[in-house]
TrEMBL record:
Domain FAD-binding PCMH-type: start-end pairs: 195-368
Keyword Metal-binding in record: yes
InterPro entries: 2Fe-2S-bd (IPR002888), 2Fe-2S-bd_dom_sf (IPR036884), 2Fe-2S_ferredoxin-like_sf (IPR036010), 2Fe-2S_ferredoxin-type (IPR001041), 2Fe2S_fd_BS (IPR006058), Ald_Oxase/xanthine_DH-like (IPR016208), Beta-grasp_dom_sf (IPR012675), CO_DH_flav_C (IPR005107)
Alphabetized Pfam families for the sequence: CO_deh_flav_C (PF03450), FAD_binding_5 (PF00941), Fer2_2 (PF01799)
Name this polypeptide is given: Xanthine dehydrogenase small subunit
Enzyme Commission no: 1.17.1.4
UniProt GO MF annotations: xanthine dehydrogenase activity
EC main group: oxidoreductase
Keywords: FAD, Flavoprotein, Iron, Metal-binding, Oxidoreductase
Boundaries of every 2Fe-2S ferredoxin-type domain copy: 1-86
Length: 488
């Protein structure tokens, strides 16, 4: 059975198909149809809702998420707020401003946009968010008929207005601790949600020991964390997944910590939770992570999930390979360590043994002379999948490349290093001639495919151009002239 708050009221679900998305449950079971289905893949934002998740201290953190690819079982112990909560007075400034600024036409996308704006408003109560934060919050919401200028104008206006609901308001938890008190009464142990007649099953263990035991008993089960990719098998491929084990609530798999000369990130840690500590060490991650999906996706998607999915165009593996990061794998036979670059065997094939899972990722901290460059190329700036992603760690001593690790996504069946290009750079001056030689060597490293995102020739050319970009960006005069977008 799962328990959670829905618009201020406690809900208990003791029997349901674990393949149900939050969106489908809301619309078909609860008849809360304000939340819309536009794409069922986490791209358009029409399904945006707000979830509140208690931390270790009991404080609730509110986030906008895509309900179309969030599974019902993941709601246990959380608060769920939908657009229907704001039918009760007082209305939220985001609603009023969208009307006053003419931010809606057909209105289909409007509920999702409203929820994204409300989440941003709730998380910046002490300071007004700037345009950068506003655009980031709206980057996962598509509108086909209004145009974005009036929507952005509405957001700017809403962010400077106060909202003060009383304690009876369905979304009052955004402003006070009422929800925290209610959620504290929900049990924090592992849960199981099953469909009728011994149908599909969803387990959500709360400890590492429980997870190991479940994986030992059910090695054929599918692991799920944020479900930002796995849920597409349900919503796009119309599959029924018989047994899911969620790692989202396993305490040992969450959070970031510094361990001497490494940053350790739990595999179930969402992107937005590790973005700041990782970017403080390696600043190149910040603009790349801002372009990894939308804010709704980054609030749910996890580092372990991005790696275990083993996509050749996953955004995190190339920079982790460039940094010589290490995976900690766990399972019924205990823990073991493995370099990230050794984890990928072939397309969608990894080194995981039956019953194993990714426990954490250990990322080295910078050493003197090391520079990291990460560049993502995609057809649009926001909320898109990479055609090519290049990550380069260059170690310079008196202008000489004493060491380097060059990794790419989108160039082969797996994320991979460019060892011939590395050999061309290592020991050479960090200048145009050596970079040109390294770019030419890429054709010996990779034989990329042509697909809908890019041709093979384009991929080889752009991979070499990204090395040239890293050289230009390392020149202080050139770097100072580049914009944030140039680094993205």
């Amino acid at each position: 059975m799962i328990e959670f708050l829905l618009n201020g009221r406690m809900e208990k679900v003791d029997q349901a198909d674990p393949n149900l998305s939050v969106l489908e449950w809301l619309r078909t079971k609860m008849r809360l149809t304000g939340t819309k289905e536009g794409c069922a893949s986490g791209d358009c934002g029409a399904c945006t809702v707000i979830t509140g998740t208690p931390d270790q201290t009991g404080k609730i953190h509110y986030q906008a998420i895509n309900s179309c690819i969030t599974l019902l079982g993941s709601l246990h112990g959380k608060e769920l707020i939908t657009v229907e909560a704001f039918q009760q007075e007082p209305g939220h400034p985001a609603q009023t401003c969208m009307m006053e600024k003419h931010g809606a036409q057909c209105g289909f996308c409007t509920p999702g946009i409203i929820m994204s704006l409300i989440a941003l408003h709730a998380n910046h109560q002490s300071a007004t968010p700037d345009d950068h934060k506003l655009l980031e919050a709206l980057s996962g919401n598509l509108c086909r008929c209004t145009g974005y200028r009036p929507i952005v104008d509405a957001g700017r206006e809403a962010m400077v207005q106060a909202w003060s609901p009383d304690a009876s308001h369905p979304a009052a938890g955004l402003k006070n601790d009422r929800s925290a008190n209610a959620l504290a009464s929900i049990h924090t142990g592992g849960i199981t949600l099953k469909a009728a007649n011994d149908g599909p099953r969803f387990d959500a263990p709360a400890s590492l020991a429980e997870l190991r035991e479940l994986r030992s008993r059910f090695p054929e089960s599918r692991l799920v964390a944020g479900s930002t990719d796995l849920a597409l098998e349900i919503t796009q491929q119309l599959q029924t997944l018989d047994h899911l084990i969620s790692v989202e609530r396993v305490h040992e798999l969450n959070g970031c910590r510094r361990d001497n000369d490494e940053l350790v990130i739990g595999a179930a840690t969402p992107y937005e939770a590790f973005r700041k500590p990782l970017s403080e060490l390696w600043p190149a991650f910040n603009p790349m992570l801002e372009r990894l999906g939308s804010l709704q996706i980054r609030n749910r998607g996890t580092l372990g999930g991005n790696i275990a999915n083993a996509s050749p165009i996953g955004d995190m593996p190339p920079p982790l390979i460039a940094l010589a990061a290490t995976l900690v794998l766990d399972g019924p036979d205990g823990a073991r360590k493995l370099p990230v670059e050794a984890f990928f065997h072939d397309y969608k094939q990894t080194d995981l043994k039956p019953g194993e899972f990714i426990h954490s990722i250990r990322i080295p901290v910078p050493k003197p002379g090391e520079k990291l460059f990460i560049y993502k190329v995609s057809k649009r700036l926001d909320d898109d999948i990479s055609a090519v992603l290049g990550a380069f760690k260059i170690t310079l001593e008196a202008g000489i490349v004493s060491d380097c690790r060059l990794a790419f996504g989108g160039m082969a069946a797996t994320p991979a290093r460019a060892r011939e290009a590395e050999a061309a750079l290592r020991g050479a001056r960090w200048d145009e001639a050596s970079v040109k030689a390294a770019a030419e060597a890429l054709s010996r490293d990779f034989n990329p495919l042509s697909d809908v995102r890019a041709s093979a020739a384009y991929r080889l050319q752009i991979a070499g151009n990204l090395l040239q970009r890293a050289l230009l960006a390392s020149d202080p005069l050139v770097r100072d002239a580049l914009t944030v977008t140039d680094y993205a």
